[in-house]
Amino acid sequence: MTDFLCGLSEHLCAANEGAVVDSVIGYRTLTLFFSEIITDHTGILTAAEQYRHEARSRAEKSELICLPVWYSEESGSDLVQVAQHCGLSVDEVIALHTETIYVAAATGFAPGFSYLGYTPEALKMPRLDTPRRAVPAGSVAIADRQTAVYPSSSPGGWRLIGRCPTRLFSLDWNPPVRVKVGDRVQFYPICQDEFLALGGVL
Amino acid sequence: MNSFRILEAGLSTTIQDGGRRGLLGIGITQGGATDPFMMALANTLVNNPPDAAVLELTLGGLQLEVTGAFSVCLTGAACELAINGKPVDMAGPHHVNTGDLVTVGKCHQGIYSFLAMSGGIDTAPVLGSRSTVVRENLGGLDGRRLRPGDSLLLGDSPGVGRTKRTRRDAGGAGIVSELGSCLTLRFIPGFDWEECAPSATEGLLASEFSVSSESNRMAIRLTGSHLQTGISEAWSEATCYGCIQVPSDGEPFILINDRQTMGGYPKLGAVIATDCRRLTQARADTQVTFQAITLEEAKHLAWLETHYQETLQQALNQP
Asked: Average model confidence (pLDDT) for chain B?
């Protein structure tokens, strides 16, 4: 789905050059923001129909981004509870979380935040009933069948299982985000010393 | 070079301009002045491009000290304005010199006012805009609200604003007018409208809501009726300006400038920009109702609004 939406977005932006101001990919939707003066929704829909019939593959190949995670009770306060809820050991949770290659299905919520799908069925977790007021920056979290890294401290209702020291958003980069929609992401485990050596902050 | 220093910063004063474009896809919100038309008017009256950076005030309350010589113009929410303690007319641009004190006092009508100064506020743009998004610590001055003691530079100005000529034209157009007893929000049904339980769509059209005091630059919160959409599974997708979002407690939010770019709550449609602009200026407890319109009607209303704004700008620009 994400691959199709990425391709459709590229096609519609190219077909309506100068008119499309913003293009936002969600899990199952593509939202275009365009100038009514240059085109209208019928123009966009015609181009979308055309793409659906051609069903070409994307020119741009998605990148595999490997992110280190320090999984522990100290760095991920819900890790033990997640294991208990899923009827797994902590090591099994880590193994399941790291063996999957995720696809960034959407980015947004906060700058640098990517919704990564899908975690294995065995790791499916409900959200917290009451979101935390502040989740530490770098927190790696799961909810439903999604996972994500919180790029900066923010409120959050997902279950925390570890911490990633890698920076995901910087105004010094162009684009300022590390993970784009369609990119593939895989996590690998590190220990506390490696977390600190990679610039992680406790 | 012209500059000014903040002596009193009020409830929440931020630097705003036209906001950011083309960045929603990577999670950077639009931001910008909550009432772009009022900002454009203030800028025009001091000879600036319409989206030059201005101060956005929340419920009035600001004092600044001038260095140099430039023009200032206040539009938007109706506030008391004084120069060196002497009350002056809010509508006209005013020329100020080194040492002058510009004071914005009590706010009588509306919420957001815009103080434009010739040359525009000259902070370093971040991702193409000077707009402040406090939540993301982005833009403006260190990404935060202004505080007493902050000094800000103004950009190069082509000269003094045309004080005498425009004073007569701007008049009431630059001041938020009194709302009637009820504000009608015209909207285009969309997003999850078809999938929504009829009780929720009918409820939206039939209920009277009131503006909550918990509204801010992210969203206007409405209270008064609980809409049960019946939609439990929601996939995160883009939000837009004016989006009617219904969280699980059923009281709708209307998303505005600093909204989060993605949302997972059911959405019933989008309020047209011209009505959304009025809504942002509506005080707590203002009564609002919803009226569904077609895309064609919305386009026509947008055209009329644009035409009105262009005509007014032209009139103000005429020699």
From this structure: 92
Measure the CA–CA gap between A124 and B71, rounded to whole angstroms: 60
Q: Each residue of A52-108: pLDDT tens digit?
A: 887 666 656 678 999 999 999 999 999 999 999 999 999 999 999 999 999 999 998
Cβ-based contacts of B27 with chain A (< 8 Å):
107-113, 177
Best probe of the B interface among A24, A118, A154, by most B CBs < 10 A, is: A24
Question: What does the alpha-carbon distance between residue A169 and residue A114 come to, in Å, rounded to a whole number?
Answer: 11
What pLDDT, on the 0 to 100 scale, is given for residue B168?
Answer: 47
Instruction: Indicate whether this model's pTM tops 0.80.
Output: yes
**Domains of chain A, earliest start first:** 2-54 (no CATH), 64-197 (2.40.100.10)
Q: How far does chain B reach from its first CA to its final CA, in angstroms?
A: 27
Q: Which chain B positions have a beta carbon within 8 Å of A10's beta carbon?
A: none
Which of A108, A171, A181 has the CB atom closest to B260's CB atom? A108
**What is the complex's ipTM, to 2 decimals?**
0.87
Under DSSP, the state recorded for A121 is: G
Q: Does residue B163 register a pLDDT over 60? A: no
Q: At what angle do helices B163-170 and B36-45 cross, to 10 degrees?
A: 150
- Chain A nearest-CA distance from B68, in A, is 33
* Domains of chain B: residue spans and CATH: 3-174 (no CATH), 182-309 (2.40.100.10)
What span, in angstroms and rounded, lies between the C-alpha atoms of B11 and B91? 22
